[in-house]
Amino acid sequence: MSNIDVQDIIGPSAVMQGSSVELHEAIRITKERFPGQSFCVVEDWVWLDLDAPDLITEELASEGQQPVMLLVFNALYDSSSSANHHWFRSTPLVEFNDGMFFLTAYKLYVLLGPGRRKTMSLSAVVRLF
């Protein structure tokens, strides 16, 4: 687990559950289900429902994306990098499946363990990093 207290950064939020499988099993399932897809298995994550202007929401929709991003505090495994990730945010959500697969235009995130869910303004999310 990371040393960052998620609550200190995002404030009040609701608990949201990711998958309860072990890391090695999450990697196996993901490789089998999404062959060739770049993916990152994460814990200590926050599902951010973006409070964004209609124009931004409409633009995202026209690109097949939703006004949702992922804030990650602990990347356990990244199929395309051996770098040690510090906290980061994803690009907007394209599709969410099986309570654990958060697909963006560029990467698939596999959500493990409990996370948080919060609505946050787009401007606040951009200022986080």
UniProtKB/TrEMBL annotation:
Origin: domain of life: Bacteria
InterPro entries reported for this sequence: DUF6957
Ranges of residues in domain DUF6957: 17-126
Protein name (Swiss-Prot/TrEMBL): DUF6957 domain-containing protein
